[in-house]
Fold:
Amino acid sequence: MKLLILDGLTAEQATTMRHGVWLDALARARGWTPATLSLRTLTIAPCTGCFGCWLRTPGICVTDDDGRAVLRQLVQSDGVILLTPVTFGGYSALLKRALDRIIPMISPFFSTVNGETHHRLRYARQPRFGALGLLGDDDAEEAQTFRTLAARNALNWHEPRPAVALVRADADETATRAALQAAFNTAGWP
Amino acid sequence: MSTPGQVVLLIGSPRGGRSTSAQLGDVLVAGLKKHGWTATTHIARTAIANPPAWSELERATAAADLVIVATPLYVDSLPAPLIETFERLHALRHTAAPPKAQRLIAVVNSGFPEAHQNDTALAICRCFAHRAGFRWDGGLALGMGGALSGQAITERGRTHTVAVTLHRAADELAADGPLSAATIQALARPMMPVWLYRLIAEVSFRITAWRHGARHLGAQPYAREDD
Structure:
């Protein structure tokens, strides 16, 4: 079972936030084979909103950079965890730049999920979806927004039970592992 | 009526001035100009990649009475260049508080028919406003954004309600008020039946793909070998 960790921390954040290392260790202990992509080391241009990945070269972004490799690795994984500082209740710009480039993973055509319009999936098998958010402080509005965002993303991935954990950025290994264990268990992940 | 002020229009769409976001923002700005306001327009993608453009945005934002964020929905959130713009502005304002009270609103549009799918993106804008010291004056959500693509927003035809509602929003903002619930609800109203919008969108996708020579829209170029 391949688990892809998309690490959206900056180099400066990564020097103090060890949560990705703890996530990797926990996933290994639970039987996953994790791989981490440190997005800060990759060259990923912003999505231009051209829809070429749907209507010119279906399934492949027209921009040829590391964004394509991220998508390929993601599609070929069994699960993905987004690792990010909670940024105004959402994901960091670094992580979002990669996420904006994964829309070739879905089809332009619509389906109805929970009474709402969403896109159909391109691939028969979709990786399970999860997120680990690191909160700078105890801002309840941002925490709620983050949980809602992850739930909305899960809906668009047709993921019924996402593994979402939220901890303080200064949380230690014990607290982080506990939050991740709970998230994995709730989602029914190995 | 309050004194005319300065408005900054910050466009989140990477498509910049050609985007539906820019069209929506331009209508709001035109409405404010009728009340004597002055305006500057900035594109997030350009600003983060171009130091002179960033300096202009920084200067204009510091002097603004009102910031209007006009953006498409990207993966249930904001496009990455707009988030980066927020990160940078927040870092600046964290160290140097603005000299006057400032307000911020957002208008988010998406290709989904349901306007409420934009709510999380609006919540992120609201969190940014709170963190960066702006008064949050409300968010407008528009579904069926594809129906506006390449079409002027006027008080005639299909865009009538959108145009009238944005003019009303501009009047409310010019009067120093937040966006009213009635205005927010009016913009969120569907422009056509959901089934019709979906049909038009899907036919449009097929025609565009055909013109580009793309024949197999369901291609799976990265499928696992064991799929």
Q: What stands out?
A: Chain A has one domain: 2-187. The helical segments of chain A are 11-16, 19-29, 52-55, 66-75, 93-99, 140-156, 173-187.
